[in-house]
C-alpha cells in the first residue's frame, strides 16, 4: 500500500500514515484525520 498524507483539522499539518500506524497526529495528538483530495485524470 502507498503512504497516505492526511491534513489535520487542529494544527493544519500533514501526516504520513502507513499501514499499522496509529491514526493520530504526530505533532498535536489529535485523532481526527482527513484524507487529502486527489484529482481524477
From TrEMBL:
Chief location bin: nucleus
Q: Which UniProt keywords apply?
A: Metal-binding, Nucleus, Zinc
| MF (Gene Ontology) | DNA binding; DNA-directed RNA polymerase activity; zinc ion binding
Pfam families, alphabetized: Zn_ribbon_RPAB4 (PF03604)
Which domain of life, per UniProt? Eukaryota
- Which InterPro entries does the annotation name? RNAP_P/RPABC4 (IPR006591), RPABC4 (IPR039747), RPABC4/Spt4 (IPR029040)
Compartments in which it is found: Nucleus
Q: Which GO terms describe its biological process?
A: DNA-templated transcription
Q: Got a GO cellular component term for this one?
A: RNA polymerase II, core complex
Q: Which family does it belong to?
A: Belongs to the archaeal Rpo12/eukaryotic RPC10 RNA polymerase subunit family.
Name of the protein = DNA-directed RNA polymerase
